[in-house]
Design a protein that fits this description.
This protein is an all-alpha fold and 326 residues long. The protein has 14 helices and 2 strands. Helix 3 crosses helix 13. It binds zinc ion (2 copies). One zinc ion binds next to helix 3 and helix 5.
């Protein structure tokens, strides 16, 4: 009998997951058959990071955590640009992500590396068909569900990605479509998934959160700042996830830029006392210095009490306890 993890691994290749794996094969074999291209790779990287910016600011920091406010048209634009990455609609994304924070690394978490292993947390939970997981968690996204334009975008959630693919084909032919869309989209899926999988396994824990979230510098590089994931689990409603000056957080710099332009406002950041509330580290063990061996103390020369010798005058004190003569 196969273990649950093996059954889940096999289950993530069922027919309903074939479009997901088909895009992978298209990207890989497209590159193999047309040959490596540095210009193509540059295009893929450019569209990877350009769209990662909207995964971070759109799907994650705005729709999932409402870390800033903006107008309704910009809200729609953020949703549309995020959905060019083909990671389903913002309502689905935000609902599942809020659930992840509620049950992080516990029963109920949709993608826990700790409970279900790397494969499941990275791609298995997306590739495996599950009606409940495919549904929008309406109770968790009531604040977003009231916007009809977001509900409409949810119904046609792949449309923004298809429009981008058509633009790539029109502007760059097959080469543009392959690198600018298929290769960069596959990379984006895995870049985003790293935060769900390895960001709960590899890295340092600064805050004592009740999950396995970590701060990881190289995931932060690949995800424009999302890799400071232990900081984020410590205070999820902060628009910045890098809490120290050297914790680069490009998505937050972008939000600051939008704020300076008046496009977004009420940008929330973690208060100082929250940032300072670091995990108590065990005090360093102090080894007492080894004292030099003490020199032996010479005992004072004592005059031994001598027993009376013959010839000594012994004075006997009168004792009241003796009977008196007389
Ligand atoms: Zn997490
Ligand atoms: Zn989050």
């Amino acid at each position: 009998m196969a273990s649950p993890r093996v059954r889940r691994f096999v289950g993530s290749f069922r027919p309903d997951s074939w479009p997901f794996w088909g895009i992978h094969l298209l990207a890989i074999f497209g590159v193999i058959f047309t040959g490596w291209s540095w210009a193509g790779f540059g295009l893929a990287v450019a569209f990877y990071y350009a769209r990662m910016l909207f995964v971070c600011t759109g799907y994650h920091r705005y729709f999932s955590h409402r870390t800033f406010k903006t107008s309704r048209p910009v809200q729609f634009l953020l949703a549309f640009l995020a959905q060019t990455t083909a990671q389903k609609g913002v309502l689905w994304w935000a609902g599942h992500h809020r659930r992840h924070h509620k049950y992080s690394d516990k029963e109920g978490d949709v993608h826990s590396a700790k409970l279900d292993g790397f494969w499941w947390s990275h791609v298995g939970w997306i590739a495996t068909d599950d009606p409940e997981r495919d549904a929008i968690d309406r109770d968790r996204v009531k604040d977003l569900y009231r916007f009809p334009e977001l509900r409409l975008l949810e119904k046609v959630n792949l449309l923004p990605a298809v429009i981008l693919a058509v633009i790539m084909l029109w502007a760059g032919g097959w080469h543009g479509l392959l690198w600018g869309f298929f290769v960069s989209t596959v990379l984006l899926w895995h870049g985003t998934s790293l935060v769900n999988s390895l960001n709960h396994v590899i890295g340092k824990r600064r805050y004592d959160t009740d999950d396995e979230s970590r701060n990881n510098w190289w995931i932060a590089l690949l995800t424009l700042g999302e890799g400071w994931h232990n900081n984020h689990h410590h205070y999820m409603t902060s628009a910045n996830q890098g809490f120290r000056w050297y914790e680069y957080d490009v998505a937050y710099y972008f939000i600051c830029f939008l704020s300076a332009m008046g496009i977004v406002w009420d940008v929330r950041v973690a208060p100082d006392h929250v940032v300072r509330d670091e995990m108590r580290r065990p005090l360093p063990r102090v080894t007492p210095p080894v004292a030099p061996p003490l020199a032996p103390i010479a005992a004072p020369r004592m005059t031994p009490r001598l027993a009376p010798r013959p010839g000594d005058v012994v004075v006997v004190e009168p004792s009241t306890s003796l009977p008196q003569n007389g």
